[in-house]
Each structure stands twice: as structure tokens, then as C-alpha cells.
């Protein structure tokens, strides 16, 4: 642990010791670098907020024979440091200030009646990154903590609005190909949210079912022992740390300047050079963009025109596709607008919010 914040050292040390993980503290970057060159560590916790030079240790550790496989946790101040840490190869990020109550939330257990929930489908524990998009956020990284054919539990950096669609993209450990699906929030507490899958393409459904069967308790009992044991222990360590530290998987989260508002508006979408419109539905809207639900989204960066009709307003907007979820929809960023168009968009936003 490289950390110059005395209070943070105390908090992190207690948590690691509670998990029976021995802690070695370094006070400066040079001493930490020397130890990384000599010793293999299971976990590296680098306080880049108090010691910005600690960011340089991350790519070095990833290149070193001893610590290339270590679990790296970076404590950062802002999105800029988070992006640098992620680029260097960190596994997790944790934002300052370090709040005891936030980190120790898992001491209070999972809470609620969720532990008594009776599921029809068995869930498998895991700790893997997922990229989600929903009404107010785009390309946010979360951690999937368990998974079944019908749903999942995840840790997210903020509450997820109820009754909204959540679009997932993730890779399963040891599997080839990305899983893409849509779900909705069915329960939520300060630590986690439960998602029920509502739209799963056949390819993702087959991949999900195959992976779950291969990782069922029966399959694990008959699986060969050996190197896989070390992998299971490493995954267990990651899960335990995630639960205790409330970590967020490192990712290039992009925070929008303007909030998006859930809506349900019919739209005509015209692609460049096409005279035939797609009849789609908008599921969220802001002054700078929208999310279009369609089973045949346009490619990223494709220019398009969106025609909206509501409350005696006919609005035509130019835009460009910024994010694509095959089979579900696309996020669109509006091009430059006139003052009249901006007022009309705001009028539509006010209209949709008044309908709730």
C-alpha cells in the first residue's frame, strides 16, 4: 500500500486485516518501486490522490514479471486521474475522500429481504466488468456480482432509476464474444441493484446458458484441479475486496454536461442517402441528444435526421450516432441547433416530464 494519507492508511489497513490480508505500507514512490521490483504482491493499493506520482507505478507493475498479475486498486481525485489509472492498467478505482461509512457498508450485510429471495433460476457468483447505458448515463462501468439466465446483481456508482431499461455489454470470464442484453431494475439497496433481463438476443442467450452450465456446481465438482484453483482463489479475493471497499471497476466514464430525461416519443429516423424512414421510439431526451430504441441501429458516427411530433410540435433535428447497442438502439448527439430548435427541444422535455 502506497498512501500518504494517515486516515486512509488506518481505514484500508483495518479492512485488509479483517480479510486476513497482510499489509506492507510504503511512504514514497521510490520505496514502493523498489519493493515492486523485488517482491510479488497479490494486491497493490496506490493512493494517486495524495501522491500523483503513484500513477507511474501502474504501467510499470503491469510490465514486471513479479506483479503483472497483481490486483491493482487506484485511489483517485477526479475523472482525469481515473482515466490515467485505467490506461495504465488498474483493475479498480476508488474516489477520494475516503469515507469510513462508505467503505464499511458491507459490514452491515446486504440488508433487506434480498437474502431471503426465492429465485427460480440458480445464480453464479462472479466479479466482472459490465458496460451499461440507461436514461441518464452512457457507457458507465459497473461490476456484475452474480448472474443467471434471467437476471443479475450489480454494483454501480449511483442509484439506477426504477422502471427504466438498462442496456448491458460484458464479457464472461473464459468465454469468447461479448454478451449484449437489456434489463430492468427490480430491487435496489445502497450496495447493489437487482436486474431482470427483459430482452436477450438468441446469440447472447446461448452464450449465457453455455457459460452458466459450464460453471454450475456440478460442473465445478467434476472439473480438474490444479491451476484453476489459483484462478478461483484470485477471483475470491477480488469479490471479497469489492464487497468491502465498494470499488467501482475502472472505466472511462463519460459524464454528460446536461441530464437526460426518460420519455416515450415516436420518431422518424432518416439515414443519410435513404428515402425510407425508420419508425422508432425515443426513451430519453436532452438538449444535446437522445436515445433511439430500434432493432436496426445505424453505425457509430453515422449522420442522421430525427423527426419528432408531439404537443403540436414538429421538430426536425440533425445528429450523429455516438453509441450503438445492436438489436436495441443507439445514442444520438444532436448537431448545432438554432435558438428556435433549442426552445422546441426544451418544450418537448417539459411536455414529457409533465406526463409523468
Description:
This protein is of the alpha+beta class. It folds into three domains: 6-105, Response regulator (Rossmann fold), CATH 3.40.50; 118-220 and 230-249, predicted glycosyltransferase like domains (Thrombin, subunit H); 261-354, Thrombin, subunit H. Helix content is 28%, strand content 33%. The chain has helices at 6-18, 29-38, 57-63, 79-88, 100-103, 202-214, 217-222, 227-245, 339-354, and strands spanning 43-47, 71-76, 92-95, 124-134, 137-147, 151-155, 165-170, 179-188, 193-199, 248-249, 261-271, 278-285, 289-293, 303-310, 313-325, 329-334. The strands form three sheets. A six-stranded antiparallel β-barrel has the order 4-5-6-9-8-7. It has a six-stranded antiparallel β-barrel with strand order 11-12-13-16-15-14. Strand 1, helix 3 and strand 2 form a beta-alpha-beta unit. The chain starts with 5 loop residues before the first helix and ends with a helix.
Question: Outline of this structure?
Answer:
The chain has helices at 6-18, 29-38, 57-63, 79-88, 100-103, 202-214, 217-222, 227-245, 339-354; strands spanning 43-47, 71-76, 92-95, 124-134, 137-147, 151-155, 165-170, 179-188, 193-199, 248-249, 261-271, 278-285, 289-293, 303-310, 313-325, 329-334.
Instruction: Compute the number of helices.
Output: 9
CATH topology of the largest domain: Thrombin, subunit H
Query: In order across it, which strands form the biggest sheet?
Result: 4-5-6-9-8-7
Overall helicity: 25-40%
Structural class category? alpha+beta
Unreliable spans are: 104-120, 218-232, 248-256
Provide the CATH top-level class of the largest domain: Mainly Beta
Q: Strand-and-helix sequence, N→C?
A: HHEHEHEHEEEEEEHHHEEEEEEEH
